[in-house]
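For consistency, the fold was encoded as tokens, as this record shows:
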Amino acid sequence: MSNLLIVDDEQSYRQLLTLVFENDGHLIRTAMNGREALQMLQDEPADVIISDVKMPDMDGIELLRAVRETLPDTAMVLMTAFASVETAREAFKLGADDFIQKPFDVEELKIIVRKALEKQVLVNENRLFKRLQREKGSIKNIIGNSAKMQAIFQMIETVAEVQSTVLITGESGTGKELVARAIHDMSPRAEKPFVSINCGAFTETLLESELFGYIKGSFTGANANRKGLFEAANKGTIFLDEIGEMSPAMQVKLLRVLQERRVRPVGAHEELPIDTRVIAATNRDLKQMSNDGTFREDLFYRISVIPIHLPPLRERAEDIPELVEHFVNKFCDQTGRKVSISPKTVMYLENYTWHGNVRELEHTIERAVALERGDEIQPERLPEHITNYNPERIKSEFNLPNDGINLVAHLDNLEKTYVVEALRKTGGNQTKAAELLQMQVRSLRHLLDKHSIRTLSAQMRNHDN
């Protein structure tokens, strides 16, 4: 059953069209003019609007213009007893689906409405297909079957349906922008723009003009009006990455935008209304920053209505094999190559602590795929700091007592032990000892003085002689 809205100031036409389309099984509502129709559309949208052109208070052309701004996909058919080429041209320019002259043939109007409804079905199916493709692509790029990642996926699906601001936190390289894009692509705003900006990449004045826009002549180089990113993302989503880098002055201006839902371009006197969802991200502790006075507490609470924390890769190491396979396939597709990765290589990757998180792992796999000339990526294609990393050896050699240790004294003693051992191995030869310790002779002599063992090398040389 389709929802039709009939708009005409003549009661006879409202009654006629109600009878005609109710007999065809449609749900009918009627309005006397464009203003009344807009009020009804706020309560419930229509599949097709059939409207007269000449009406008091708000005519059909004005209604068409308003509908295209607020409900751009709603089909609209215009009727008029005073048809003209100019009126028809303006109607089609504004996006009318069809135009018919009164008095009209009822069967012809029914055909027009049927075609408008069929077009609506195709538009909805196409939108659904595109959204599903986006959702599939967005979620597919976020890899992980660990319990922590499953909780993230569930959170994305939940917050996508609401309009609240979201704050995504996590270390660099954990995939904060991927999560932001997935939220947008699964939201009702998916058809509208997703605009991203790194707040730490701009000075205060440049960031203001980027976010809010500017008018011609507002500063040197402003040769034309420029739309800001908030306005460009209207009806969509703006992603404010590294929001913790924003200056105190910009924090005040952003807070006002979030409170008032309006922006003022640089140099302008008028404010512009916006309908933009905000998703922010940071690798810093904004709560601590607000306690320290470097980030506004009121802004922190405004942007963190829904917080999402992304775990570092070291806390979900069970996801590494799946991530590795994903990146190998990705870079093989890009280069047209076919390589796999050896289990031993994966073992090295699983054992390593990824301080750069998923981004570092991705770059490591890209390098390995580029360097490998065989059919299988071997450990030799990994950087040495990964293949040399052995957490089990470190754990066994450095056993921390339950009651703790004096770390400074322990490290000093360890340093002295290595210096003495190097001198012993080289018979007191300072040059060779420095080579063993991979340092300059001057640095070794500094350590000899530091630990009061400068005479030790001479004693060792005399003992050997």
